[in-house]
Amino acid sequence: MLVTFYQNFSDRYTVYKSISEITSVDCKLIDGCSVDTPVIRIRYNSALTRCNYAYISDWGKYYYVENPRLEIGGQMQLNLSVDVLQTYADAISQLNVNAVYAQGTNRTYVPDARVAMQNAIDIQTIAFPFAVGSPNFSTNSYVMTVIGGASSPATPTGGED
Amino acid sequence: MATIQYPTFETIGINDESIDVSDTIANLISNGFLTAGQPLNDSATFSKYTGEYNLCGSIMSKLTISGGHLISETSEKTPVNNTFTYMTSYTSLNSMKMTGVTEEEIIAQTTGTTQTLDTYPYTKIITRMNPKLLLLNFSLLNYRTFNTTYYADTGYVTPSTEEQIALYNDGYYTSDGVNYKFTVAPVLRYTYNYSPYRNLLTIGQMQTTYNGSYYYYGNYGYKPNYSFLQRTTISLENNNFSTEFPEFFNPIKSGNSVGYVNNFSMMGLGNSTEVVIPFDTGNIDIALSDLEIGKWNFYQHLVLYRQNETSVQVFVYMTVKEILHTIASLGIYFSTVSNPTSFVDNPLVYLGIMDENGETNGEWTNDTTLKTNSIQEKMDDISDTPVTPFVPETPEQPDDATKRTGDSQNLTAPVNLIGCAGFLTNYIMTNVNMQNFGQSLWASFNDSAFWQSLGAVFSDSLSVSPSDVLKYIVSLRCYPINLWELERTAVDRLYIGRGTSGIDIGVGLSYTTEMTMFKSCGSVSVPARYGNYLDYYPYTQVSIYLPFCGEFELSATEVVGSSLTVHYAIDFTTGMCTAWVLSSADGVEYIVLSASGQMGQDIQITAGNLSQVALSIATAGFSAIKSGIDYAKENEASSTYTGAFMAGASGFVNNLKTGLFPSSVLPNPSFTSFYAPMTPYIKIKSSRVSKPANWSSTSGNVAQRSVVLGSMSGFVQCVNPDVSGIPATESELAEIRAMLEHGVYV
């Protein structure tokens, strides 16, 4: 079975991995292994020690290379585990999902409860342009309210202001 | 009394170059300020306009014409030593907003006698409104200052490349240094056409468009032998101009006379700034200085703002059109003639167009019909102002800042203030009046004839006692405000009840029949700090302090991003005041808070021991009555005084016990409230966020939306992903589902 080996530079949670092909080798599967986690035996090749990723074309699946071991007789044994994100990347990309958090978008006015707030606040004061009164006592006004008085028709009014 | 609404002027556009101002220029010429074909190039012509001119109301409360820069055109090239500022018109007045208009101020302004505009026929401003607050939002990008000796019509300024030349010729005015004309330049010919003031650009536009180096060729120094090559770099990186003189050479010969440009200095870019200029205080001096009038067709709007011994000069450069736009945006009448005898039917009197909401757009009209039907002419009658109930709409875009819709619920001052003429009289008294009043009371306490003459009261009794008269005094209060703005009637004596003689307590006494007073504190904007949900509750809390009422919490979600206006109404019958806080945003205005408090503080004259009364007044910091008592002490024989005083005190106490006096005294008058701040203010408490720099790329922002995963980029975290359709085993589908819920990078 032809297996292509790569170097993977991407995080496990990346849908489309950034991989660089190292070599392709005809490998032998260990009997009874799982398709999701196959185990392959291969002649020792120093280049394989740099590989952390593989692709089995017959199955159309991408795998992480895990726990490579050297064995007697110049053989290597590699445990593989399927990478579902890369294997089904095209189908996953077509999914219509409800994204709760995303890097490429931002709902500015929806609170993000994950963000930590400091236990301090900033205080800003802004005064209105005009005061309602004057703190200068000399400019105070006095109002005496009386019954009748100058505005009464019985009382003379007028004078110099 | 007629009353005017409180309009709010919103942003006006001033970059419209389509307005034809030829009539304005013609009027300038016809009124003698400009003379066709004869520039203001000699001091005699110019100096006759030197001086300061007071305008009535408006943003330009004072017009100053200074020596400015005079360009000598004599054959001897006599230098004129002047300092002037010459702008390159990267300056833009972006917006203008005003609030707060009271009719009292308008009357005071329009009936004043300080208008000496006859000698300056251009800007005759006949105001209908006096803006209390002007918000100028402008970009001051660059201006150049020339100092010392200066010669005109010589020298060259030339862009260094053909492309730049084409740009200049296409987009810039040039000035004709010989004929003093101001035209769009077909070619670069004259000294000053490096002044790009046709296109008023924002900082970003200017930087984007003009990023690069420009070479200005000119002559330098006092001597004609030195010329310079100046390179000015407009840099996006440092947000500034930089100027260098890579070389000097001698001389430039370009088929014209040798020219000189001396001490060429440049000021750097400034950021767009909002300046709040209050107008009601006496230490503000607003001046419009026409340093360049007629010659370059733009104006320097010089705003001097002095406060607390700190002088700040703000230069706003405006073209003729901008001036007219600005004046029109005030919604006032203005004219280019010196003494228009009529407004509405005079084609030379213009009126800023105003819509029914009191908002202007910077346009104006001189059409008689339009002026007759203008909102300004109808402002005296607001009785039929429709009020439509607010009907909220369901927002279509919840992911947005708080929006307001509906009709504005404007708070307007009543057409006629509440009055009770004939029943009550509110005397407005000066300190001297108070002193004299106290003196009269105590000096004449046992003089029955005095009390008889003071108040015959309703019984016309011949035996009128002090208690008979004083019980007609409803209240005596002190207000920390200036009440002389009220409409009032002067009287020479203090009359009480039906008394016909009254007390002479000095000049300055007047009374008003108005029982309330309306007072505006203007508007402030509640700024958004983050531009996201953090600006709202519970992350941000907003409160407002209202003098005499207290501090109140406002809904941050409701008021952030809006403009708040505070109005006060003061009731003289109770001394209470009511404050209204109006929120204005998205063209909707409504009341968000109203509160009441005790503004007028009672002065005790009819209760308690008289000595305590005097003491309470004196210790409260008001010496008026105490001074009156002191005066009485000094002018009465001690025995007489003592006897009268004690007899009076005894009578007062007895009367108090028997409850003869009406209770017009609050149990605990507190003048200490006068020490509290008198200016309303808002307080914004904002939370601080602790957020890693790579938060977005590793944790994502709030999305809350349905998307096709492949259309996204970067980190995406899903909820309950539907993975049907993927040809994978059940265990693989479960793993895919788990990883999508954990978050994947696409």
**What is the chain-wise order of helices and strands of chain A?**
EEEEEEEHHEEE
| Helix content range of chain A | under 10%
The amount of beta strand of chain A, in percent, is 35-45%
Beginning-to-end CA distance, first to last residue of chain B: 71 Å
Largest sheet of chain B: 4 strands, antiparallel
Largest interface: A-B, 80 and 146 residues
Record the strand order, biggest sheet of chain B: 5-19-20-21
What does the average pLDDT of chain A come to? 86
Structure summary, number of beta strands of chain A: 10
H/I helix tally of chain A? 2
The main pleated sheet of chain A reads as: 7 strands, antiparallel
Mean pLDDT of chain B: 54
Residue share in β-strands of chain B: 25-35%
Structural class of chain B: alpha+beta
What does the oligomeric state look like here? heterodimer
Walk across the major sheet of chain A and give the strand order.
Answer: 2-1-5-6-7-4-3
The low-pLDDT segments of chain B are 1-25, 31-320, 379-397, 607-669
What's the end-to-end separation of chain A, in Å?
113 Å
SS element count, helices of chain B: 16
- Could you tell me the number of beta strands of chain B? 36
Unreliable stretches of chain A, pLDDT < 50, 5 or more residues?
A: 157-161
